[in-house]
Amino acid sequence: MHGRLLVAPTLLVVGGVVVLPMAAVLVLSVQDLRLIEVRSLSLGDLGLTFENFARVLSGPGFWAAVRTTVVYAVLTTAGSLAAGLMVALALRRPFPGRGAVRALMLVPYALPVVAGTTIWTTLLNPQYGAVNEIGRRFLGWEAPVSFLTLGEAEVAGVPVPVALFVVVAFEVWKSFPLVFLFVTARLQAVPREVEEAAVVDGASPVQVFRHVLLPQLAGVLGVLAVLRFIWTFQNFNDVYLLTGGAGGTEVVAVRVYQELAVRADVGTAAALGVLMALALSLPLAGYLRAVYRGRL
Amino acid sequence: MEARALAVLRVAVIAGAAAAAAGPLLYGVVLSVRPFASVVADPLALPSPAGADLSAYPRALAGEEDGGFGLARFMRNSLAVAGWTAVLAVACSVLGAYAAVRLRFFGRDAVGGFFLAVYLFPGIVLAVPLFVLLGRAGLAGSLPGLVLVYMAQTVPVALYMLRGYLRAVPAGVEEAAEVDGCNRLQVIVRVVLPMALPGIAATALYVFLIAWNEYLFALLFLVGDQERWTVSLGVARLADFAVPAPVLMAGSIAITVPVVAGFLLAQRLLVSGLAAGAEKG
């Protein structure tokens, strides 16, 4: 009894502001509802229509947005995992100043997202941004590149989706510190003896990594992969602040915002949200299962 | 041979990562102390120590009536919103975390799994019904409405972090207090809270930082009312107007300073707490 009493305030808040909305989003997704109609809405007006889902699924650019979202989530997950792992391994053995370097690695992660995107947009600005200036002065670029709106550019004959590449790079930059932090923590728990035994037996550093360290890290890397995928799949802030969805970076989260705030269509926004939640339920269930099996 | 290549690679990775991690922030700082005209003329130049121009900061901070961009007001708004969120979220989750660590009750595991699921649920999906529901409740444009939303977003992670810190309090001490005649609430207030205080402070700070940085809900709820803008919304909106780059950079640095200070103050505690409960973002 005591236990449930103590959890009650927490449950009340989360119930009121998360669970109730979760139920509401389901109800809203089957209404034909505009934002202005919400004010005068009463329970009796609620209907049942699957029109929103049909409209969302057949809407122009929907499947392109789905593809963009998946590409974005997969690339940033893989990128931040690789970068975080590399940095953690490089900083594993002590050297003078390691503490300071470690603290430095957390900068992108600690920076408010708006500050980070504002600085990056300025860095990439076509008129006075440092990247374009370096490109023109040292790399022989003939014209400035509008990194944040350019859908596709030819680099040595290969088409490159520039804006998408920028939002992926930003997200890798922003989230590799978290991977670095977790891998570092896990590395500290790796028993020294096994590794030393492998070295004594003549294993090269790469072999030690492959056969001793990697199996130890597999659990934490797997969990991080699922978590990063879930979070980048639903990411709105970073993409919206960098490009506003231009240049082929329109992810599904940005579409939800546009349906809601720009087109004021509550029904389709909710339907899109429900589809997103459905798409994420599989990796989410996998993650919860891993937690309960005690892997995190 | 392999060892040598790896040693070179190691130095390269460290140098590259350090430059990538700190470079953009450094660039922002440098740009914020240069006059805009000189930035346009020569984007890569460094200001001489004597020629540093700090005027972008007061311009970003001052109110519109003084020809500034109102950042000081946005900071006051964010301070209030993030402060209240931190206090209320932690007060709420201390009780819940204590129950999760010390007490056996029916549905304990279900509650734990439920919070984890809530924590992972897409924020953008919740934004739709919250926008509608708070609008109907008349809270859409208000800072207390925003506090409520932020609490729900942060309570799960606060609970997760606090659970780790509370677990470190030895149960024997609590039992001794109970033998001395304390009831459950007294045990929590007099024994558990003081011993877990560093962890609670770190959690509160962490919640504060999440609320300070939040952008999506601030955008949805407050965009029409410039008086109530928070720092994230303020700086992002300024970027849409033709605000000179140094002022924009000064604004970005100004909203970062409290975050960096907080991180430095509680680095060790935060890192161990983070490692205990993964972070969303």
TrEMBL record, chain A:
Pfam families xref list: BPD_transp_1
Membrane-spanning segments: 70-91, 103-123, 162-183, 212-231, 266-288
Subcellular compartments: Cell membrane
Membrane topology: Multi-pass membrane protein
Gene Ontology CC, one term: plasma membrane
Main location: membrane
Domain ABC transmembrane type-1: 66-284
Keywords for this protein: Cell membrane, Membrane, Sugar transport, Transmembrane, Transmembrane helix, Transport
One GO biological process term: transmembrane transport
Similarity comment: family membership: Belongs to the binding-protein-dependent transport system permease family.
Protein name (record): Multiple sugar transport system permease protein
Organism: Nocardiopsis composta
